[in-house]
Design a protein that fits this description.
Layout lengths: L1 E4 L11 E4 L9 E10 L27 E9 L11 E5 L11 E5 L3 E3 L6 H5 L2 H14 L7 E4 L5 H12 L3 E5 L5 H6 L4 E3 L12 E6 L3 H7 L3 E9 L12 E4 L6 H12 L7 E6 L3 H6 L7 E5 L9
Parallel strand pairs: 8-9, 8-11, 9-10, 11-12, 12-13, 14-15
Antiparallel strand pairs: 1-2, 3-4, 3-6, 3-15, 4-5, 5-7
Helix pairs in contact: 2-3
């Protein structure tokens, strides 16, 4: 089968190639998914788990990408709850070959059934972005109705979902980003937008929570924006400064079938609209990984056509 692979961890994006690789093995409780659409995180080549298995053993050549939507092609021994031919979407384990391939082995518990009225391209934009936003806002941040949250990187894949989820629970949302992100963020319903390069973040006043996907200087300034007792949550790096009498949280997103189903239901009812920046074929995945052209939202790789899903 065809896949995007990389052998040398020092080669960076230039080391990514499209090549022929063996069909994956379905271990116990695994599912082999015929991938229709896949997502990736540009920085994942820097993750230790990209290069080794859970025992620390080298597993190159490795296939990047951890979000997928597709159809169950095969069940491993002992796998229950899913059937061959069923539409699914979910998150591939960090220490396994990923989703930028025609077929991928995934733990069944990391997948959720996908309704027929949700396109694979839309579903592939949900697992990391949706779960990260959900867990950051509600599991780690405890966001509640009436609170005010700043979402850094609000036009991106994670940030755009976070804006919509926060609005749904009745929070006041301030999005930040580059100047050309303004229309996207305000179009999602954010109450305000700030370009940190043009206006000091301290002008925003005290808020209840900051949700950060950027890190660096933006994260360093965030604790000062939070009222006493408030929370800074980041997925970029551990916050160095904690708000007064408050919390500073760094977390790594975890698979969760129930949360995936919650997100999918919101898509079906129109309460959530993932922002998809570009859709590229597998043949252009290396170029997409390099992000030579910047667009708001999530870049999705279309791997297979949707015809004959149950053939």
């Amino acid at each position: 089968m065809q896949a995007i692979t990389i052998r040398d961890r020092d080669a960076g994006i230039e080391g990514l190639t499209r090549t022929e690789v063996p069909y994956p093995h379905a271990a116990e409780n695994d599912v082999i998914v015929r991938v229709h659409a896949a997502g990736f995180t540009p920085g994942e080549l820097d993750w230790p788990a990209t290069w080794t298995d859970r025992a620390g053993r080298d597993r190159t050549p490795t296939v990047p990408g951890h979000e997928l939507s597709g159809v169950v092609a095969q069940l491993g021994y002992g796998t229950t709850g899913l059937t061959v031919g069923q539409r699914v979407f979910g998150l591939v384990d960090w220490c396994r070959d990923g989703s930028l391939a025609e077929y991928t082995a995934v733990e069944a518990r990391n997948l959720a059934p996908l309704a027929a009225d949700i396109d694979h391209t839309v579903a592939a934009a949900l697992p990391i972005s949706g779960l990260t936003a959900w867990q950051g806002l509600f599991v780690h941040g405890g966001l509640r109705t009436g609170q005010t949250v700043i979402v850094h990187g609000a036009a991106g894949g994670v940030g755009s979902v976070a804006v919509q989820l926060a609005l749904e629970v009745g929070a006041r949302v301030i999005g930040t980003g580059r100047a050309d992100d303004r229309e996207v963020v305000l179009g999602l319903g954010a109450h305000a937008f700030v370009d940190p390069g043009a206006a000091p973040l301290t002008d925003l006043g005290a808020v209840d929570m900051v949700f950060d996907v950027i890190g660096g200087d933006i994260l360093a300034q965030s604790a000062a924006l939070v009222r006493p007792g408030g929370t800074v949550v980041s997925v970029a790096e551990p916050p160095a400064v904690r708000p007064e009498d408050g919390r500073a949280v760094f977390f790594v997103v975890e698979p969760d079938r129930a949360q995936l189903l919650e997100l999918a239901q919101r898509v079906r009812t129109g309460r959530l609209r993932p922002v998809i920046g570009a859709v590229r074929p597998l043949a252009e995945a290396v170029d997409a990984f390099a992000r030579r052209t910047r667009t708001p939202g999530k870049t999705i790789i279309r791997v297979a056509d949707t015809e004959g899903e149950r053939s």
